[in-house]
Amino acid sequence: MASGAALTVPVYRIKGDSESPSVYIQANMHGAEVQGNAVIFQLLEILKDTHIKGNITLVPYANPVGCNHKNGEYTLGRFDPITGVNWNRMYHFDEQLIETFIAEFAGQPDVEIEQVFKQRLLASIDQKLDHNHFGLTTGQRIAYQLQRLAHEADLVLDLHTGPISSKHLYCPEYAQASASYFNIPHTILIPNGFDGALDEATFCPWWTLQEKLQEIGSSFSITSKLVNKESFTVELGSQEQIDLDEAYQDALSILTYLQHKNIVEKPLLKPKKLTRYACYLKNYKAFYSPMGGMVDYLAEFGKPLPAGESLVQILRMDNYGDGDPLHQITLEHEVLPILHFASASVNQGTELYKVFTKYFVM
Amino acid sequence: MASGAALTVPVYRIKGDSESPSVYIQANMHGAEVQGNAVIFQLLEILKDTHIKGNITLVPYANPVGCNHKNGEYTLGRFDPITGVNWNRMYHFDEQLIETFIAEFAGQPDVEIEQVFKQRLLASIDQKLDHNHFGLTTGQRIAYQLQRLAHEADLVLDLHTGPISSKHLYCPEYAQASASYFNIPHTILIPNGFDGALDEATFCPWWTLQEKLQEIGSSFSITSKLVNKESFTVELGSQEQIDLDEAYQDALSILTYLQHKNIVEKPLLKPKKLTRYACYLKNYKAFYSPMGGMVDYLAEFGKPLPAGESLVQILRMDNYGDGDPLHQITLEHEVLPILHFASASVNQGTELYKVFTKYFVM
Amino acid sequence: MASGAALTVPVYRIKGDSESPSVYIQANMHGAEVQGNAVIFQLLEILKDTHIKGNITLVPYANPVGCNHKNGEYTLGRFDPITGVNWNRMYHFDEQLIETFIAEFAGQPDVEIEQVFKQRLLASIDQKLDHNHFGLTTGQRIAYQLQRLAHEADLVLDLHTGPISSKHLYCPEYAQASASYFNIPHTILIPNGFDGALDEATFCPWWTLQEKLQEIGSSFSITSKLVNKESFTVELGSQEQIDLDEAYQDALSILTYLQHKNIVEKPLLKPKKLTRYACYLKNYKAFYSPMGGMVDYLAEFGKPLPAGESLVQILRMDNYGDGDPLHQITLEHEVLPILHFASASVNQGTELYKVFTKYFVM
Amino acid sequence: MASGAALTVPVYRIKGDSESPSVYIQANMHGAEVQGNAVIFQLLEILKDTHIKGNITLVPYANPVGCNHKNGEYTLGRFDPITGVNWNRMYHFDEQLIETFIAEFAGQPDVEIEQVFKQRLLASIDQKLDHNHFGLTTGQRIAYQLQRLAHEADLVLDLHTGPISSKHLYCPEYAQASASYFNIPHTILIPNGFDGALDEATFCPWWTLQEKLQEIGSSFSITSKLVNKESFTVELGSQEQIDLDEAYQDALSILTYLQHKNIVEKPLLKPKKLTRYACYLKNYKAFYSPMGGMVDYLAEFGKPLPAGESLVQILRMDNYGDGDPLHQITLEHEVLPILHFASASVNQGTELYKVFTKYFVM
């Protein structure tokens, strides 16, 4: 910090007693997205009485700079206040690493590929942390330190929230089957494209490795029991809120997935029965305000909004008397509303809603 | 504005057709408190079909600088970002004016006192606006221009909201009877003390005038039909939200009061039946956080919280393992929670809740 | 902090070896006003080789919340971002304490009055810190903890800076003679009025005590060698800057004063020869911008600006073509410019300059 | 704006009387970078008495949202406060457009290529502005409207400033010869890579067109008298300042370039004699702080800093007594400092300086 005080991040490590996959769970990379800390608290409480088979690492308050970036009553902390770069867009992925690795290790047994490639990913991060003559940005340093912990694990869960939001899950397309183990009604299926986030930074190298190995005839599979790599961004609802009861439910949802992956043994948890909607990332759309004004957010999350029904109504008192003071905003096709902006007061061009289009039931 | 663009405020004036009192209603003096604009919209819509007997002036977006003071996703706008002064603490009240006036007009008929004193209040504001060699602060200029409009009216309603809040009303002690005409369950009764807000700036001069005249034997009364001066701060609920349906209900609540004051004639509105709690301003207390952490706000608004029950629980993950990670915070006496802070993430000393203590049913 | 991390403040205590007065020096109560930390660094370095006769307590980074209140590239930290209250307006002064004390101790020897009254001031702060059922605000807690350290000392120096500023000194009227020992060309003489700042919070109780004792015939004097109480706010120049060479000069300036007060013995320092201007607080005026626009600050600090010469010129490109795009702003009387606003881009009503009017050479 | 008020941008158009190239000049795309407005003012004043041969379009206050994004005393406005995206990274460039165009127009005369390609660029922007079902972000709408004006011109000057900064120029590598007509001592030579800025958005399409045409044997040249396309980002010094005298000098510098391009005829201006340093973009490096603390910026702009000499010294009072409180930070190779951060108070990882490495005299 500016006063020189070091900001540290608490890391909780729980050792498993068998060969099960290992897990990395972090929360609060964005300053206002605090509910994940409560979920980690409830996970730790439940795990006290649980037989644990795979190593579990948990990191609440992952980004101490973002957590403490308050302005007025609110927490900002979505991006570095100096550079504007989103804290969750500064992780590292070097595609060249994979080319080099394959040149050297193609044809080796899967078990060796898995182990050595993991070491290479860790070494690549270590190099970013250590050998930067001109230094690292604040966000890179934070991101790389967390990414180092994440690369040590097989399964990665990054706990976020939306602004005002339903629960939803970012899931790599290849891991769609796992999405059904979370008690989350909305899943966004993401392709193998790196855009800087932690989930991508941890699954894209493996997915790319698999693609390139399969191109040359290997049967290496990241969904195999041996390799078993998955990463998710879990969106827990709305930001700026802590609810310990809801956090308990979300902890159970995560444990259901971990039990499915054989990391925790009991209690026997089954995923909740609920309609799980999915859409591909390219069909997950933001709607930007066509005008400045005061917004009454009408569309409910998770309830299909028919074409022609009002998504929002926008109040423009400056138009009262000599114009239209109340604008109904509709869309041309049915959508499934997932989240909306946190304030009623918007500029032209503010992202009002994010919605599923061309969605389907999983 | 910095770019030189002038920011103007829309003013709607509706003429009444009789000698009824006049009303001034403004909204959005604090940037994030936008719901009042929707209430003014609904009032204007209803008044189109209503017989209006007293003049009504309505000012939405009263503070264009505050309205446009966004930071990150949120609107700030509680105080001037340069000086830190609350936008609703810059109105003007000059007690000396009253001394001078009484020296001159004591013994005159009430009707003359009412008229001339109102002119003096207006002249006093005009003087502040015009004769300042070294200029006025941004907030003084805005406040004085609004106060000029308010002094022209008999009844003043300043529409605000809390952060996350129940509906409540600031009402001068002498006007307690009027509070029952609003559909608002919580009333704070305020004494004759000027602290800079618009309600005080408009009722304190009249209340002080009455007190000083009565000291010298006059029967001048500001609750008399002839003088009839009242001012309220109406807290409509939570900030950063617009809800047009709720605004319609609040417009009816205000119309019920205006009908009681004989300013609008129909429809015949009756105040809702609900338990109306009140407490004196000195018993309206803020509770400050005893520690930094993540707050789960447990106490419900408007529901008495018994002594010893948790107001909030505070999560301190940094204490997990070697301390107490979850703190239950209780109070020693029963309170009635009215509003709470807008973020879960707080420093030591942040105001968590405001509560009624020693409250009673009106 | 929100993440639960405790923010602590470093306190350096140097013991003197005689009965000389004790000193308290703090810096950086406002977040952007960092140069005082460098001055404390240079003081500590010089004091290593200096014979020290009175106790010296030094507190850099006095306000860790303000220090870390960054927004964008800049540090804010002039007021609590949640409440808007200036961090340097939350100290405590209870005039009633003096009445009670005098009722009990009038007529006692000065030495006892000095000792017991100091204990009462400390006890009053302890009580504020300990017995607040509903808690303390963030700023009160910080202020009271610092004030406790300050009340233990006889002489108090609170190191601040202006926005873009010359060096200047706030000095109580009774201590005017001491102002000449600082190498500071501009002194504001302040009366016995408490407005919440640390200097006032530490000298006003003693000054009031002296006044009330003298009213009843005592010769108790706070400028006597026995009592010897003085407090200053030292404005070191502009905010958002650290300059260690300049800090060394300012450290020498402070040591010159401390040597005059017999707290440090060597080296033999003499105040610099420079014209020292003073004005009374009531004549220290802020000039508020008559319009929004882009400001070219023309008047130099410390150089008398004749009536009619431009203080600033304001560019209004929106008026280019159909108005006056460049406005020269002048004053009707000569002034001495002391500081100006930190940005070129201002709203109507922004404080542009602070100037001495009716100033004189000390 | 949130209150519904429309923010408009002033556009000044001056018609030339011959076939000379046309020019587009804008300022203040980033909120705090206001000096360009003063330069446009001085340009307009000088052009009143100048024979003008090419059309000139000037846009001060180009980004009204950024201009009015104040926080505390300072203007932020480097990026959209909601999304974090840099306002100068939202322009549009569609490489596919060029492929399509060449398929159709390869082999046509240069004059037709120039005219039709310009129309295509404009049409591409119009399409972005008009056909977005889900809307545009605030920044896209602003950027596209400005880009439309810029594509109409041959030469584009985007006036910016650094935080605390020397004057410097971003110049496409192919236009290096033109850099010598500006009175600017430091030039960054940028390759044909689009990163979202206005200069790139206007020269990259033409440069790419030239490259692809030359690949298939055309002699089409964007530096020919017929085509003549150049774009520069002109960095005028430090942000948050207006200086009309300096602006006059910068206006002369720009006029010297415009005269060289035959757009204005008199007065006869010659570029100033000064050492002009240049470096390639890849060698223009940012130095990030290795620690949090208070920074004394030591290195002077434009003066080579030898290897091993202090760039900055960082004060860490928290280390006083039990660590090293003052850290000298040096580099391993000589650099030419160009700009530094605007605040003394930094986090670990804050960009402290930007410097030329491997620079040379032009």
Question: Can you walk through the features of this model?
Answer:
- The structure is a homotetramer of 362-residue chains.
- Helices cover 28% and strands 23% of the residues of chain A.
- Chain A has 8 helices and 19 strands.
- Chain A is globular, with a radius of gyration of 22 Å.
- Chain A has a 9-stranded mixed beta sheet, sandwiched between helices.
- The longest helix of chain A is centred in the first third of the chain and has 21 residues.
- By secondary structure, chain A is α/β, with parallel strands linked by helices.
- The mean pLDDT of chain A is 94.
- In chain A, helix 3 packs antiparallel against helix 4.
- The interface between A and D is large, with 48 and 47 residues.
Strand and helix order of chain A = EEHEHEEHHHEEEHEHEHEEEEEEEEE
Task: Work out the oligomeric state of the chains in this entry.
Answer: homotetramer
| Largest sheet report of chain A | 9 strands, mixed
Morphology call of chain A: globular
The two chains with the largest interface, and their residue counts, are:
A-D, 48 and 47 residues
- Spatial order of the strands in the main sheet of chain A? 1-3-2-6-10-8-9-11-19
Query: End-to-end distance of chain A, in Å?
Result: 46 Å
Query: What's the total number of strands of chain A?
Result: 19
Structural class of chain A: alpha/beta
Task: Round the Cα radius of gyration of chain A to an integer and report it.
Answer: 22 Å
Estimate the strand proportion of chain A. 15-25%
Q: What is the percent of helical residues of chain A?
A: 25-40%
Task: Please tally the helical runs of chain A, counting DSSP H or I stretches of 4 or more residues.
Answer: 8
- Spans of chain A of at least 5 consecutive residues whose pLDDT stays below 50 are none
Mean pLDDT of chain A: 94
